[in-house]
Amino acid sequence: MSAERVVLVTGGNRGIGRAIAERFVAEGYKVAVTARSGEGPMGTLTVRADVTDSAQLDAAFLQVESTLGPVEVVVANAGITKDTLLLRMSEDDFDSVVATNLGGTFRVVKRASKGMLRARWGRVILISSVVGLLGSAGQINYSSSKAALVGFARSLTRELGARGITANVVAPGFIETDMTAELPAETQAEYKKSIPAGRFATPDEVAGVVTWLASDDAAYISGAVIPVDGGLGMGH
């Protein structure tokens, strides 16, 4: 079935989003990515959209629908960080992170759900983070926005579960990306000590879980939080 399915990955031009888009392409899906700048991987349709702008998103969806067909799998991955301790965090530091990470997910999923309801089939996959449930000093804005995705997916499951639509959360831990590569070696070693697996994940290890959730094998899984964190957040 995968060859006929249309996937949209937000923030699919770099990092985890890019790896997810590449994996869907490799598995034969028709893949579109949203990006504010840059291009998605080879074999994808890149559409320009800022997830905080409903009009831009609507135009992006129309472009995907006219080129590839209705979106059947949506991966809400676009996210930003503005890390600082609570007492130094400005209202904009808080509001802008929540507007992108949570508000962006709301806008994208609301728009995608219209086609899914018509088709009576859909996969909603929200990319959260281990810090959403484990917590992280200096990330009150980010961890709050990522924790909120759990309530989002579970409420959506209760609303749309009877229509052949699932909604799940993937919670990555530390991943080998440009961001972690820039950390000093001793900081990386310190982080790895707290991870039972003793290493960071590759972006492709996250992508594999996401594509599995989109498959027919995962049709009866909804409202779940699946950690991809090497055991870092166990029980959280």
In CATH, the topology is named Rossmann fold
- Placed side by side, the strands forming the largest sheet appear as 3-2-1-4-5-6-7
Q: Determine the structural class based on helices, strands and strand pairing.
A: alpha/beta
The low-confidence runs, each spanning 5 or more residues with pLDDT under 50, are none
CATH 2nd-level architecture: 3-Layer(aba) Sandwich
Q: Provide the helix percentage.
A: 40-55%
Question: What's the total count of β strands?
Answer: 7
CATH class: Alpha Beta
EC number: 1.1.1.100
InterPro entries: KR_dom, NAD(P)-bd_dom_sf, SDR, SDR_fam
Protein name: 3-oxoacyl-ACP reductase FabG
GO molecular function, one term: 3-oxoacyl-[acyl-carrier-protein] reductase (NADPH) activity
Notes on the protein architecture:
The protein has a seven-stranded parallel sheet with strand order 3-2-1-4-5-6-7, sandwiched between helices. The mean pLDDT is 95. It contains eight helices and seven strands, in the order βαββαβαβααβαααβ. It is globular and about 50 Å long. It is α/β, with parallel strands linked by helices and 236 residues long. It comes from Microbacterium rhizosphaerae.
Features:
236 residues; NAD(P)-bd_dom_sf; Rossmann fold; EC 1.1.1.100
